[in-house]
Design goal:
The complex is a heterodimer of chains A (about 120) and B (about 110). Chain A has about 120 residues and is mostly beta strands. Chain A has no helices and twelve strands. Chain B starts with a strand and ends with a strand. The chains are: A mainly beta (about 120), B mainly beta (about 110).
Chain lengths: ~120, ~110
C-alpha cells in the first residue's frame, strides 16, 4: 500500500539551530512528495514539493531531496526561527495517475516543532 | 482572490445527530476533496469530487456522504455522529484534480459530545 512515516515529535530547538525532520515512504507507484505546514488553528499550507527522484524542493530556507534509493524525503533548515514553530506533515500523492480520477494525498502523522528564543 | 472557504469554522454536535459542512473552492477550481484530521494525526482522505461526480472515496463508513453543486461548492454530510468523528475537516480544491494544484482551506473543527 501507500504510506508515509515521519519522525515523531515533539521537537524543540533553540533559535538558529539546524533542523532535520525525517520522512520515509512506501508507494505502489511513482509518487510525488510534499511537505505541508500547519500553524495553530489553521489549515495546511504547501511548504515544498518534489516530483521525481533527485529533485530538491526548497522554500523559505527549507529544503528536501527526493531520494528514491532510500525512499526518503527529509526536511532540513539550516537556521530555524521562532516563526517556524508549527506542525510539519510529509505527504505523497501518486504521480502517474491522470487528473480527475481520485488522486489522494497520503499524509504522515505530523511532527510538532517548537523553536525557543 | 479568495482562497478555499469552509463553514462553519467550529461547531459542537451531540452523538447521534447529523452535520453538514460546507466548502467553497477557489474561483475556477472544479475539483474538491475532503479530509478528516483527528487530533494528533495526519489528514485522512474521505472523498474527491470533480464536475459534480464522485471520483474517489477513502475508507470511511457510509455515514459519510458528500455532493458537489453546479457552482462547484461542496457539502460533506455525516449521519449518526459518534464521538470518534470529532476532528478537523479539511477541504482542498484544485482546477481539475491535478496533483500539484491543491489548495487547502482552514477547516471546520467538529466536536461531538
Amino acid at each position: 500500500g501507500n504510506s508515509v512515516t515521519q519522525m515523531e515529535g515533539p521537537v524543540t530547538l533553540s533559535e538558529e539551530a539546524f533542523l532535520t525532520i525525517n520522512c520515509t515512504y512506501t508507494a505502489t507507484g511513482y509518487p510525488s512528495l510534499f511537505w505541508y505546514v500547519q500553524y495553530p488553528g489553521e489549515g495546511l499550507q504547501l511548504l515544498l514539493k518534489a516530483t521525481k527522484a533527485d529533485d530538491k524542493g526548497s522554500n523559505k530556507g527549507f529544503e528536501a531531496t527526493y531520494r528514491k534509493e532510500t525512499t526518503s524525503f527529509h526536511l532540513e533548515k539550516g537556521s530555524v526561527q521562532v516563526s517556524d514553530s508549527a506542525v510539519y506533515f510529509c505527504a505523497l500523492i501518486l504521480g502517474a495517475r491522470k487528473p480527475r480520477t481520485g488522486n489522494q494525498f497520503y499524509f504522515g502523522t505530523g511532527t510538532s516543532l517548537t523553536v525557543i528564543p | 482572490d479568495a482562497g478555499v472557504t469552509q463553514s462553519p469554522t467550529h461547531l459542537i454536535k451531540t452523538r447521534g445527530q447529523h452535520v453538514t459542512l460546507r466548502c467553497s473552492p477557489i474561483s475556477g477550481h472544479k475539483s474538491v476533496s475532503w479530509y478528516q484530521q483527528v487530533l494528533g494525526q495526519g489528514p485522512q482522505f474521505i472523498f474527491q469530487y470533480y464536475e459534480k461526480e464522485e471520483r474517489g472515496r477513502g475508507n470511511f463508513p457510509d455515514r459519510f456522504s458528500a455532493r458537489q453543486f453546479p457552482n462547484y461548492s461542496s457539502e460533506l454530510n455525516v449521519n449518526a455522529l459518534l464521538l470518534g468523528d470529532s476532528a478537523l475537516y479539511l477541504c482542498a480544491s484544485s482546477q481539475q484534480g491535478e496533483i500539484y494544484g491543491y489548495t487547502f482551506g482552514s477547516g471546520t473543527r467538529l466536536t461531538v459530545v
